[in-house]
UniProtKB/TrEMBL annotation:
Listed name of the protein: Zona pellucida sperm-binding protein 3
InterPro entries: ZP-C (IPR055355), ZP-C_dom (IPR042235), ZP_chr (IPR048290), ZP_dom (IPR001507), ZP_dom_CS (IPR017977)
Spans traversing the lipid bilayer: none
Membrane topology: Single-pass type I membrane protein
A GO CC annotation given for this chain: plasma membrane
Residue ranges of domain ZP in the record: 1-113
Similarity comment: Belongs to the ZP domain family. ZPC subfamily.
Amino acid sequence: MHIQADVSTGNHVALRLFVDSCVATLTPDRDSSPRYAVIDFNGCLVDGRSDDTTSAFISPRLRQDTLQFMVDVFRFAGDARNLIYITCHLKVTAAEQVPDPLNKACLFNKAGNIWSPVEGTRDICRCCETGNCALFGGQSGRGSPLDRWPGRRFQRDVAFRQGDSSVRVEEADVVVGPLFILDAYRESRDVVEDRMEAGKA
C-alpha cells in the first residue's frame, strides 16, 4: 500500500508534516480488537521492523509538508471480510524546527540493522527500539498515542512562535478505509474456475 499524507500550508509559515502513529483495525473504531500498530512511538514505522516486511518511509521527501510511506499488504488472520481501516495521527512542526524524538519519521534499515531518520540525526530514532520516545523527548507524563485519541477524527489547534508572530496549525486523526485486500493468487484462481464452470455450462 502506498500512502501519502500532506498538509496545505496556504500562506502560513513552511511546515513539516509527521505521521505520529497509525493503527490498522477491522472497523473504523481505532480502539477495536484486533488492532495492529503500523507506525508508533512518535513516528517509528514499526511494521518495517518485522523480518518478512519491506515497509518504509519514502526518502527524501517530495516536500516538507508531505510524507509518503509504503506498507506491505496484510490481512487479519481468520477474517473473511478482506478489509482493514487505518487510523493515523498527523501533526506538523515549523519546517525550520530540527526533528527530535517526538517529531520524526524513522524507518528500519534491515541491511544495516539500524533505525534511520528521513531527516535529522540518527540518535532521534534510538527510542524506536525501546519504545520510550516520550522519555527522550522530555515528556515522560504522556501516555500511549492511542490514549490521546478521544474519537475517530479530531483536530486540535497548536501554536508555535516564529520570530514575533504566533502561527496556529492543526493536528488531526484521519481514517483511511475501508481498504479492500485481495489475494491475487486466489482471485486469479477463482476467475479460472468461473471460466471452467461457464465452459461446462
